[in-house]
Amino acid sequence: MNSPSTPEGPGSVSGAPHLPEGFTGTFTSRYIDTGDLRQHVVTGGDGPPLLLVHGWPQTWYAWRLMMPALARDFRVIAPDQRGTGLSGKPEDGYDTGTLAGDLAALMDALGHERFAVAGHDTGMWIGYALAADHPDRVARLAVAETPLPGVSPSPPLFANAHLNNALWHFAFNRLAAVNDQLVSGREDVYFGWQFATKAARPLPDYAVRHYVDTLAAGPGALHASFAIYRALDATVAQNQRRKAQRLKMPVLGIGGAKSLGEQVADTMRLAADDVQTVVIPGCGHHPPEEAPEETLTALTAFLATSRTSD
């Protein structure tokens, strides 16, 4: 019988729905205590370490379709960030400096001094902070599909309708409490709209339901889902300092042709010297789930020269 400290339920490897065949034979869930935070992490595979950082409003599960293939060449580490999934949900610590520190501590606990990082959406924010704050730890950085607060130019308040539809949640998510009140009990409406409007190739219904159910599991889960946005003042100030010291490691910017496209790499060129770009045709905001094969091809080619590093 499992002990209470064993990750269980739909957020764990043992309980997550519709995982690729053989997934549970390669990957396991575990909890790692890193100071004031208990982190849920999914690990598996052999080779140099690769840290996968999910975006909003998702969990480690966003990488599931790519993880089995990556595990043939890498030791794959896919955590739930602070405030998400089965990881702890403290009241504070959601600026990207702290979030990046969480992951550096996680990799310490797992015995990985140097590693590659791939981050999607808000995982790009955290991945950038990790590479900038811990440059000796990050061998390569791949990022996908978001502007970078404090580095990208801020969009205008009165943007055109297309841009407003893509970005209005930034302001909404930053609100102190009324967003919790409006979304509570309507998680399927709010988060379902986010997935439906940002994906060019619709995510499977089971995946959207999994994310929505995770966010609707209790008021703490919903409240914490907004926390990285509520901390944007701190993150913007941090990024304005970070960009003065440009990233030296190789960086890959991945964009969906139906979403940000070349803008991801263009953004990273504001902060890094060695930037490559991949634009995935017919893909929207969620490359790891909309186009896992194309994303896998781009990521493995980028990481190929670092497989002897640790």
Describe this structure as you would to a colleague.
There is one protein chain. With 310 residues, this protein is α/β, with parallel strands linked by helices. It has a single domain (23-306), classed as Rossmann fold (3-Layer(aba) Sandwich). It contains 14 helices and eight strands. The chain has helices spanning 23-26, 67-70, 96-110, 122-133, 161-173, 178-183, 187-198, 205-215, 219-225, 227-230, 232-242, 263-268, 287-290, 292-303, and strands at residues 28-34, 37-44, 49-53, 75-79, 115-120, 138-144, 251-256, 275-280. An eight-stranded mixed β-sheet has the order 1-2-4-3-5-6-7-8, sandwiched between helices. Helix 3 (96-110) crosses helix 4 and helix 7 (187-198) crosses helix 8 (205-215). The model has no long low-confidence stretch (mean pLDDT 95).
The whole-number mean of residue pLDDT values reads: 95
Question: In CATH terms, what is the architecture?
Answer: 3-Layer(aba) Sandwich
Number of strands: 8
Number of helices: 14
What is the H-and-E element order?
A: HEEEHEHEHEHHHHHHHEHEHH
Q: Please give the domain count.
A: 1
> Per CATH, what is the topology?
Rossmann fold
CATH class: Alpha Beta
Determine the N-to-C terminus distance.
Answer: 36 Å
